[in-house]
Structures are given as C-alpha cells and as structure tokens.
Amino acid sequence: MPSTTTIVTQDGEVVGEMYEENRQLVTIDQIPDHVEDAFLAIEDNGFYDHAGVSFSAVMRALYRDVIAMAKVEGGSTITQQLAKNLFLENDKTWMRKTKEVMASIYLERTFSKKKILELYLNEIYFAHGIYGVGTAATFYFNKPVEALTVPEGAMLAAMAKAPNTYSPLNNPDKAKARRDLVLQQMNRFDMLATEETMELQGKTLGINQSEQLEKPWLDDYLDIVIKEASDKYQLTRDELKRGGYQIEVFMDETAQEIAYETLQDDKNFFGSTEGVQASFVLMEQNTGQLHAILGGRDFRLGDLHRAKVPRQPGSTIKPIAVYGPALELEQYKPYSLLEDKSLSYDGYTVSNADGSFDGEVTMYDAIKSSKNTTAVWLLDQVGIGYSKSYLEKMNISLPDQGLAIALGGLEEGLTPIQLVESYRPFIHGGEWTDAHTIGRIYNRNGEVIGEVNPEKNQVYTPQVAWDMLRMLEAVVVSGTARAGDISIDLAGKTGSTQHPNVPSAIKDAWFVGITPVYVSSMWMGYDQTDETQYLSKGSEAPTIATKDILNELSKQQQLDQHFEIPDGVVDLQKPISLPTINDLDATYQIGGFSLLRGELTWTESADERVIYHVYKKENGDDVKVGEVKGKGSYKIDSVNIFQSATYYIVPYNTLTDQEGTPSNEANLSIDF
C-alpha cells in the first residue's frame, strides 16, 4: 500500500514528506494491545474466530442492499474491510460484494491474523488526508503509536466507520460520543473493567496537534533532493510518493534559513523594476555535501529552480577556464607578466571594463582586477582545447569554440551548482567532486538501497590550487570583491554580464566564494531579459549578500576562521609594491680602508623584500655598481675626491623580475 516518504537531516529531523496517501507504516508489535482491542471491539469482535467472512452479515447486507449495518459489530469483518479497501472500487453492486468475499478468503489463507490486522490498521483512513494508525497517532495526539493511551486508541477506533463524520476536529461532540461507545464495547467484551470504563468516558478527547511552523525555505532544497533521487537512484517522483522511503540529506537548516532570510531583504537587490531574482548554493568543501540551496527568493515546489538554470557566468569563469589551467604549465606563475592591451583576434576585440590598459600585468593583479584583455590573451596562448580539457575534468562540457569562453560568453552557460563544484578544487588540493544532497536512502523495510558515492577527479596539483586560492583571496581583500565586511577568511571571484538591450546595464551578477569550510555561489538577475528589466548594481550586490550570510552563519556555528596551508605546499608570497624614491642623498664619510667613503641614503620601503639597484651615471651606458636588500643605505668604498659622481637608485621586484621607477639623482662631490 502507498506509504509516505520522509526526508530527514543527519540529526534525524524530518524536513519533508512526499505521499499520495499520508501513511507512516507501523508493525503490529508497535501497536499496543489496547489499541488493537478498541478496533476489534467496535469493528469485529469475532476476528480471531471467523475465517474472514461473516456470512450472516453478508446475507443481511445483500438483503438490505447496503455495505454496513447500523449495529456496533458492523456489516463486514475487518478482513472484508481490508479486502474492499485494497482491491475493490467503492461501488454497491452484487458482483463487488462477491469479489469482497473471495478476496477476504484469499487474505485469510495467505496471511496470519496478526498480519491481516497489521495491514488493516495501516490502511484505514482517519480523515484530513491521514492514513494508518501510526500517522493518526502523530497527527491527533503528537505521539508515536506505542504511546497511545486507552481513550486515545478508542478515539481512533471510533473514526473507522465514518472518519470525516467522527473526526474530533470536525465534530468533537459526535467524536466523543462514538469514542465512549467504543469504550463501552471494550467493557462489554471484557477488555476493560466497568469502573475504568466509566472513568475513561469522563475524559476529554485530549487532542494535541503539534504546531506546524511555516518553513518556506525547505522547498528549494527538497526540489534538488527529488531531482537527485531520480538522476542518481532512479526513483521517480511518483515512486517517492508511494514507496515509503526514508532519505537522509545533508541540509543544514540553520544555513538554509539564514540564506532564505537574506534573500528576502529588499536592500540586497537593485533593479530597474521589481522582480529581481536570486539563487544561492552552499557546499561543504571537504565532502561536497550541499548544506543550503535557494532556487529563488520565493521558490515553491514546481517553480523554476534557478540553482539548476545555466546562465552566462561572466568573469567567474576566468579562474577555471583560463588561469587555473595556465598555472599547470611551467611558463606561467602567479607573478608572470601577461599582456594587457586592446587586441583584436580575427575581428573579436576585447577591452577592460574601465577602458584602461597597463601594457603588462601580473597574473595576480589580472585576477584581482578582473582584466578582460589579459584573460582572453592568455586563453589564446594556452589554447581553447587545452582549457576545455580542464573543464571536462569537472563535468563541464562546452560546445563553444571561441575566445569568448574566457569572459563567460557561453552558448549554454553554467549553473550555480556547477560553479561551486568547479571552485572546490582550489580549497581541496586540486580535487573536484560532484555536489550532492543525499547521504542514504532506506526502503520501507529499513534496508539501505542507495548510498552516496561521490565522483572525484584530480584537476590541479595542490600547489596550483593553493596559489589560485591565495590570488582569489586578494580579490576579496583588495580587488573586485572587496565590497562588504567579512569576519572569516574568504576568497572568491565576481562576475557580471552585459545586458543585450540596454547599453552599460547589467544582466547577470555573480559572486563565487570560498571559506575554510564552504564554497558558495550566488546569482542575481531577472528571469526574463528585455529592455525594461536590468540590474542597476553589478557583482557588488551578490558579494555583500554572500558575506552577510557567511557572517551570520559564523555566529551560529563554530567554523574554521582561517585558511590552513596544506602539507607539501609552499605559500604564495604577497605581491611586492615598489616604492617611488624622491629623497636620495649622497654624503662623504671618514673611515674605512680608503679613509674616505661615500654613502647613499634614502627612505626604504616597509617591505623588506625590495632590492635596491644602485646605478652610477656614466657617459654612454650607466653602470650598476651594487645592490642592497631591505634597507635605505649603500656604502661606496672607492671615491675620488677630485671628481664628482652622480648616482640613482632603482627598486627591484624579485617576484616579477621588474625594476621600478628610478629615484632622483644624487651627486657625490667636494667643493674646494
């Protein structure tokens, strides 16, 4: 018989149910004897004595052309009622009654009396969409069937004849009268003493329904669970609604609620009209478990689930399609100098968002500032096929063949779920895994029929993954994702796409984030694109909203605060910023082997890694006479007091192998 599928968290909390008939199956051993007695007393006291059919009752029913008589024993045995409900239509024909008798005899020959009673008590309807005594115990009394008292069991038995009529919610007076009749019948058949019967008849119905709190944030997650059950475990929605499964999921209800409440706040959304939508995905990075999923700001089961909708990812694709794969090649490092010029590739011309170009830029700064020209240039250097081979390791298959891939200009786009999967390797040693909601699935007999076995693939070396994480951290600290405040370590990448109908307007806005515990993605935009609907603020909005969610979650849970360097990995040095030196001074000093020495002094950078190259001006080419690291002075041992000399300093960046701007010139001379 159809049974309810329950969806529970790892803590055992029920977060969802699916059913065509709301029925939680229980065994006969779970049902107290006094509950069995109540049903037998009012429905079929001779149950253990007959062979399934009361032929006298059948003859009376046929004679009066009705199913049940108006006497307390009823017109049919429990076996006949079960046979009718399981196998037959509820019509009143001579043939139906004949089939009922035949089916009852079959049941009695096939099953024990205890099994027939168990089936009956699980099958019976208790009004308000409730089937089975186990579900009814929870619905009416907020307790398991094992804990039902005698009058509570009698109340449920009272409903068997006409559940809607005798519902304690619909007609409490009729329900009490019928319950008292059940207690009276239990006394009549020596199941209750007379004094106890009278005492119990004096009690109220004792209905105690649990308060059903509205939790609109659950549907978003459950929709993904249903899809995963179908895709990975071949369980259709119809099968889930009747199969009585228990599905353990990885939902973190606290995170789910926090994300939902954040997306309800209008201050996080900026658009030309109402109706700006969003989706949010939160994946636990260590396992790939999905802890929170929002399919929209007001999602309901059956709606468009935006976490599954592919969209243009904008610049969020740069780390996974360009920079990550490039770092796997020996010639590219985080501080390699890359092109930053407006170039044309067979008619495809690219410019930066701010319209400015640096000529050359490090990969570190290109990612931090989200340089479009650099990403396209580098993709052209490494090759589109090479780039796509890395995407395919993360189950991303693109039909695209053009350099627009570097900027997220895709035919089909990526989903928010795909983006959290593809950023996970950066925090997990280069390993990709598929995101999943389901841990285990049990059938109605409690047997495990499905268990998570995530797909995994090594995409990057641990060193490349860590270098990319550090560069993405810079994006949050001082780059395009610096908007908003965050209390824990966060790396990430922003992205936006141009509106096709409104110049300078934004169609999609993204932020993909990485913390020590989670990988997240957030999309904002409109479901339909036209000239009247566009975002008035870009990636800043999802960046701030994501930080709000993570900040609130860190208050509710004990989360790791800082990124930990993996074993065997060398930490990426922070960039060196070369100083501009305007205060170089040259003086003579007495002492040393030559009795007279020269000294150059200047204000050194706070970064002790800076090396200062010392140059002496000569006719023709200037001569490098020495260098000093991390301090603002240099000794010149060999000086000629009768000849002046001019010097200048050039700071040098060891990470990029670049010299900076020459200092002012200083003259070393003596006036006689």
UniProtKB/TrEMBL annotation:
Pfam families: Transgly, Transpeptidase. In the N-terminal section; belongs to the glycosyltransferase 51 family. In the C-terminal section; belongs to the transpeptidase family. This is PBP1A family penicillin-binding protein. Keywords: Carboxypeptidase, Cell membrane, Cell shape, Cell wall biogenesis/degradation, Glycosyltransferase, Hydrolase, Membrane, Multifunctional enzyme, Peptidoglycan synthesis, Protease, Transferase, Transmembrane, Transmembrane helix. Residues 279-549 form the Penicillin-binding protein transpeptidase domain. InterPro entries: Beta-lactam/transpept-like, Glyco_trans_51, Glycosyltr_51/Transpeptidase, Lysozyme-like_dom_sf, PBP_transglycosylase, PCN-bd_Tpept. It comes from the Bacteria. Residues 12-186 form the Glycosyl transferase family domain. SUPFAM superfamilies: beta-lactamase/transpeptidase-like, Lysozyme-like. GO terms for cellular component: outer membrane-bounded periplasmic space. PANTHER family: BINDING PROTEIN TRANSPEPTIDASE, PUTATIVE-RELATED, PENICILLIN-BINDING PROTEIN 2A. It catalyses: Preferential cleavage: (Ac)2-L-Lys-D-Ala-|-D-Ala. Also transpeptidation of peptidyl-alanyl moieties that are N-acyl substituents of D-alanine; [GlcNAc-(1->4)-Mur2Ac(oyl-L-Ala-gamma-D-Glu-L-Lys-D-Ala-D-Ala)](n)-di-trans,octa-cis-undecaprenyl diphosphate + beta-D-GlcNAc-(1->4)-Mur2Ac(oyl-L-Ala-gamma-D-Glu-L-Lys-D-Ala-D-Ala)-di-trans,octa-cis-undecaprenyl diphosphate = [GlcNAc-(1->4)-Mur2Ac(oyl-L-Ala-gamma-D-Glu-L-Lys-D-Ala-D-Ala)](n+1)-di-trans,octa-cis-undecaprenyl diphosphate + di-trans,octa-cis-undecaprenyl diphosphate + H(+). One of its GO terms (biological process) is cell wall organization. GO terms for molecular function: penicillin binding; peptidoglycan glycosyltransferase activity; serine-type D-Ala-D-Ala carboxypeptidase activity.
